[in-house]
Structure formats: C-alpha cells, structure tokens
Design brief:
Number of strands: 0
Main location: membrane
Number of helices: 9
Largest sheet: none
Family: Belongs to the peroxisomal membrane protein PXMP2/4 family.
Radius of gyration: 25 Å
Order of helices and strands: HHHHHHHHH
Keywords: Membrane, Transmembrane, Transmembrane helix
Region (Disordered): 1-30
InterPro entries: Mpv17_PMP22
Distance between the termini: 63 Å
Helix content: over 70%
C-alpha cells in the first residue's frame, strides 16, 4: 500500500533538512579552527603588549609598591605561557589562562619577597643557591600543585596531586638549579626578578604541559 502524497512530501522535507541540522549542531559543538586561531592570536598579542609595557615600566610600578610590579609581571607572563601552549595545541581554553594568571600573580608576589630575603639575609652566593633549591623550589612547586588541584578538582590534597608534585619537582630540578646559579652569580640585583620572570615564562610552558 503506497503512502499519501502529503506524507511522502513531509518525509522528503525531513530527510533533506536533517543533514543541515546535524551539520549546524556539529559546527556549534566544534567551532571552526579560524575562530580558535583568532582568539589565540588576539590573546597572544594582548598579553605580549601588556607584558612588555609592565617590563618597561617595572621600576616605576615598583616605586609605587615593591610587590605590585612582580605580581603584574608574573600574572601577564603566566597568561602568555598558557596562550603559547594553547596555540601549539590549537585549542583555546579561557579557564586555563585564568588559572595561570592567578598562579603567575601568586608566584610573582612571593618570588619578589623570596629574592629579597635571600639577598638581605644571606651574604654568600653559594648558600643562596643551596637554600633556593632546597627550600624555595619545593615550596613554590607545592603552591602550584595545590592551586592546580583546587582549581581542577576542588580539593587540596589527593593521590594524583602528590604524584603530580613529585613529577613536576623532578622536572624543576632539571631547570631551576642552572638558572639559580646564573641569577645569584652573574645577574645584578635590579634585574634579578625580571630575568626570573623570563625563566618563569619558560618554566610555565613546561607546567602547562604537566598540568
């Protein structure tokens, strides 16, 4: 028995519309790469300009408040590192950029204070390097892993957090001791923190891969 003409027409209309609707829903769920690239390039340009502006005016900002310059430069360099990592992965995630902005701010603020403590309290450069690596490196790495765990999982300590801490600490000892020697042996005190931010930019690229 054949279907009425009106029912056949409705079936044809549904079948012709279904690929369009599925394609539109697919494009909605998976944005075009061009839009992702536009967001990533815009983020990289903005973060680079802001980082350069903070670096150029670092002494002026530091005169207003000694910790503010470190906080701002740490924030912008953390965001820049995350955006560079996302550009390499061709994936834009605002939440991760915000997380690294927060981490960069915390890291920048406390790094300024940590460097000042080492410079003012310890005269011997070798002792500064040893204390920096035995105390500073594990402490800052622990702060990052705690922040990462709270941000992603809503808890401060877990088995995965402890494993991630040990893993990232191993990587940090392949990187930071060399910079610590360079920093306390050869870099003038006025340039220590800006150079530390450059090193942190490279280190944050590694953390982006680990986090």
């Amino acid at each position: 028995m054949s279907l009425p003409l009106s029912e056949k027409r409705n079936d044809l209309e549904k079948s012709s519309l279904s690929p369009i609707s599925s394609a539109s829903s697919s494009s909605h769920l998976h944005p075009a790469p061009k839009r992702v690239y536009q967001k990533l390039i815009s983020a990289l340009i903005i973060e680079t300009i802001i980082s350069c502006a903070i670096y150029i005016n670092y002494d002026t900002i530091g005169a207003y408040h000694p910790m503010l310059a470190g906080l701002l430069l740490g924030c912008s360099s953390g965001a820049l590192a995350q955006s560079m990592n996302q550009y390499a992965k061709k994936k834009f995630t605002l939440q991760k950029i915000l997380k690294f902005m927060l981490w960069g701010s915390i890291n920048g603020y406390f790094t300024v204070g940590w460097i000042n403590i080492l410079i003012t309290r310890i005269d011997n450069s070798a002792y500064r390097i040893i204390i920096d690596q035995l105390v500073g490196a594990p402490m800052f790495q622990l702060i990052f892993n705690m922040l990462n765990s709270i941000w992603d999982h809503g808890e401060m300590f877990s088995i995965s957090t402890r494993l991630a801490y040990v893993k990232s600490l191993k990587y940090s000892y392949c990187f930071w001791p060399f910079f610590s020697i360079l920093e306390f042996m050869f870099i003038p005190q006025a340039l220590m923190f800006p150079c530390n931010c450059l090193a942190n930019l490279l280190w944050n690229l590694i953390l982006c891969r680990l986090a």
